[in-house]
Structure formats: structure tokens, C-alpha cells
Amino acid sequence: AESCTSWAFCDISMSSMTRILILGASGMLGHQCVKTFKPTAEVVAIVRRHVDQFTPAQAEVFRGVRLIDGKDISNHESLSKLCHDVRPDVVVNAAGIIKQRNEAKE
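Above: the chain's sequence. Below: its structure in C-alpha cell form.
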């Protein structure tokens, strides 16, 4: 992999063994990351909702991807344990708080 000089875009050459942990994988940006990376990497997707709540189209995006739900990624210890357990080569933080949610007003 090459050195990344811009936080906005990095062209990373990945081997088929690269494990990518995507936080916020069911969101607007996160699901696009899943679609982009799953053909060339092992993707582990952290989602807020359980897969049973996905539409058929959403479920299709995550076919062949390891899904983990119910993790509190805002908690440092929980996130640290998650990274220790998953052992990713790359972490993509696509999680965000929607302005309509009460948490965004804090």
C-alpha cells in the first residue's frame, strides 16, 4: 500500500487477503464502501440494524459480507475490543449522526 497524503482520497492497492472493517456500513456512504470493496477484500460490516430489518435490496449488498450489529462504536472500549477481535488491515469510518436525531443536537 502506498502512503496516503490526503485524508479525502487514498488509492490503496489491496491484496485479496485485505480485511476491511467498515463502521456505519448500512448508511449512505457505508453501503457504497461495502459494494466497492467486497469484490477485492474481506469486508466486515458494522451495522446499526439487524439484517432481518433490511429490505431485499439492502440484504443483497451485504451478501458474502460478515455483518456485526448491536455494537456501540461511540464507546472507546467497545470499539477497541471490536478492532482486537476483527483484526482489520483497514478501518473505514462511515458512521455519522443524522441531524434529525437527538444525539446530533448535543
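The CA atoms of residues 73 and 80 lie 9 Å apart.
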